[in-house]
Amino acid sequence: MQRRTVIATALSASLLLAACAPSTDAPDPGDEDTSSEQTADGGECAEEVTLRVWSWRTEDADTYNDVIFPAFEEANPCISVDFQAFVNTEYNQILQTGLTGSDGPDIAQVRSYGLLQPLVEGGNLVALDDIVPEVAEFDETILAGAKGREDGATYGVPFASQTLQMYYNTAIFEENGLEEPTTWEEFVALNESLAEAGVTPMAVGGLDAWMMPIVHDILGSAQYGGSEFEQAILAGDTEFTDQAYVDSLQTVVDLQQYMPENVVGVSYTESQVLFTTEQAAMFPGGSFELGFFQAENPEMELGVFQVPPPPGSALDQAVTPAYADGNWGLSANSTHQEEAETLIQWLATQEFGQMVANDLKQFSPVPGVSFDEPLMQEMWDLYQESPAPYLQLVNFRYGDPTGTDLIGAGVQELFLGDKEPAQVAQDVQAGLSEWFTPGQ
């Protein structure tokens, strides 16, 4: 069985639509030769079916093609998987078009929380509560990102959780006599030491706005209050103009001097390169970076730490923000519903979850999965000890404008000197007030 990967790059509006159609060498189920295919018990396949699976994680394509889906195909020889990965910033539009047509995916990675809702409301996905009853055993906080907001039904099998923390290059730290900071003063001092040594302290790319809420929460979640602030903002007991939240935005500005020069002109990819080529000592990012970092520079030894809060913060201890990254959804338009159900059931198994942990270096939410990678275990332990939500993604993507878009643009404006933190906080409050009602 042949599998191919399509990685979409920069697309014009017309190409976005074209990307949703199968390529000229796509398997045609009507032309497939099933004469040599056999079932697991040696019988002939009544039909060989190819399932289209779409994803936004281009960096995982080789692992899905070479390791993960071959394991499924071996156990299900009448089903093959055509895995296609698209550039993440273009994926939402491609997926929306694909799910409404006949040439879209049978199963697709779909976003969590607020960005899942348009697909649910549009009838694009099949509810999975009866098809994959195992999802009921998943952690409730993770499963919340897979549910329809109105009907409470489950529309996805969660595939990964992500934690947010500061990575660092242990060799650079050792060369400069530095250790993981336990206080804000130590954190500032190590940034100063690295800058004086001619090393970029933090690899941050401000050109890609989607990374800015991540950077903000890594640096400022404990300062504005983490889970406590989340509860207060949802209940209507405070607003984003709260001084602690404004101060957390000011902290990002204060630390800009330790980021690459002209940070808003540095792309996310360029920031990754700065870190993996060991030109920068630290990288504020998600657990989703680990596999990529290790693949790009296998010799680089990594450590992680939680950024300690500044004096006067709402919390007196560091926290690890986290979120449910996404889900596997079953297309309501799939012409191979039975086979697609077989695959999505397998995506909820411990076998698949363990491959996600071992081969993709991702936190699989499947119960019973263990993390053999020591750094993964450390990140997970830090989260368990002092958890916090990735606030804008978890709670404020249910309307337009989204919280992540507002903070993304706001932090860019801070870096450019176009606005003050209090103005950005007011923009966030005003934007979210267009659709968010506290206490509901």
TrEMBL record:
<dbReference type="InterPro" id="IPR050490">
    <property type="entry name" value="Bact_solute-bd_prot1"/>
</dbReference>
<feature type="signal peptide">
    <location>
        <begin position="1"/>
        <end position="26"/>
    </location>
</feature>
<dbReference type="Pfam" id="PF01547">
    <property type="entry name" value="SBP_bac_1"/>
</dbReference>
<keyword id="KW-0732">Signal</keyword>
<dbReference type="InterPro" id="IPR006059">
    <property type="entry name" value="SBP"/>
</dbReference>
<feature type="region of interest" description="Disordered">
    <location>
        <begin position="22"/>
        <end position="44"/>
    </location>
</feature>
<protein>
    <submittedName>
        <fullName>Extracellular solute-binding protein</fullName>
    </submittedName>
</protein>
